[in-house]
Design a protein that fits this description.
There is one protein chain. The chain is of the alpha+beta class and 182 residues long. It has two domains: 133 residues, 2,3-Dihydroxybiphenyl 1,2-Dioxygenase, domain 1; 46 residues. The protein is 34% helix and 28% strand. It contains five helices and eight strands; from the N terminus they run βαβββαβαβββαα. It has an eight-stranded mixed beta sheet with strand order 2-3-4-1-5-8-7-6. α4 packs across α5. The radius of gyration is 17 Å and the shape is globular. The C terminus is likely disordered. It binds zinc ion.
């Protein structure tokens, strides 16, 4: 069993991505690296990178989602920590055999096309832990998923934080020859 390899990102719940960008992007200089609409989790996520690790801003889009309840009950703030592992299925098996409470007993497809699993804070001494198994295809999957969001957001006028529209426009210009920015 290998150790987790590194912290991939720290997840923060925010009620306004644009407001959060004023600090995390404009203040600290992190760059918007990736944006995805995750209807299954009732949230839009924006990943900000320093070129090595990332901060994930999670904004609820569905008032009935778990993430929305989290925001309502606790306010904006730290939501989860994500660690990279090499053999996610093997990890989950081992943790389960130790009696660790897993939210995902099997790896599920997460943002950016990665295999992920969440571990319940009850078993981690109080913090929601996300495990990632990276795939070599991740850059292409990220691009395709963000491209889909760019199309929807920019063509259908879907409400997405203004601060990430520049990122989405850039993507869309890469993928399509025309420039449709309403
Ligand atoms: Zn995350």
């Amino acid at each position: 069993m290998t150790s987790t390899t590194r912290i991939n990102h720290i997840g923060l719940v925010v009620d306004d991505i644009d407001e959060a960008l004023k600090f995390w992007r404009d203040g600290l200089g992190l760059k918007v690296a990736y944006v995805e609409d995750v209807p299954g989790q009732g949230a839009v996520v924006a990943f900000l990178s320093n070129g090595n690790q990332e901060v994930e801003l999670v904004k609820p889009t569905d008032e009935h989602s778990g993430i929305s309840r989290f925001l309502q009950e606790r306010g904006p703030g730290m939501h989860h920590i994500c660690l990279e592992v090499v053999d996610l299925a093997g990890y989950l098996e081992r943790l389960q055999s130790m009696g660790v409470e897993l939210i995902n007993a099997e790896p599920v497809l997460g943002t950016g096309g990665r295999l992920i699993a969440f571990i319940h804070p009850k078993s981690t001494h109080g913090v929601l832990v996300e495990l990632y198994e990276l795939t070599p295809e991740e850059p292409e999957i990220r691009l395709a998923l963000a491209g889909e969001l760019a199309d929807r957001a920019l063509i259908q006028g879907q409400r997405v934080a203004a601060g990430v529209l520049g990122f989405l426009r850039g993507l869309r210009q890469d993928q399509h020859s025309e420039d449709d920015t309403n």
